[in-house]
Amino acid sequence: MKKNKKGQSAIIAMSVGVIILAIILGVIFNFITTEATTISSVPNETITFTSATVAGIQVLANDDLASFDALTNITGENILTTVGCNVTLSTGTIGCNATGSTTGFAEYTFFPDGYITSAPTRTLMNLVPVLAALAVLLFVFAFVAMKGK
Fold it and tell me: Of 3, 58, 139, 140, which is the most exposed, with the fewest CB atoms less than 10 Å away?
């Protein structure tokens, strides 16, 4: 039986290409799904108020907040509820009355840039790597079937 060197080298090249493609796609899809579907948390952001006795508005480092959990002053008192602070989740701004301290600590979660807010879209985003893997497998099977003829 005569060996087909040309066909064997094509199959080896295809196998190497598929392995490299799987590694590259794995890294890309991991990055995309992590960035697009994960909410980030900030446990202790320092905020500097202009005065301890005068109302003021401060802007957090991140906007588009998912939740705002706590705002404490330097003594650990939760000033979010005791002094009447208002937090705007969409812009990340805090408006407070007299805080009793010029330093505050905010604890919140936020949607990072690129986060997909739609739940069905996030689900579909998780299916894209599976569909890409199926497409690669279909291509390999078609390639092998064509070489076999």
Answer: 3
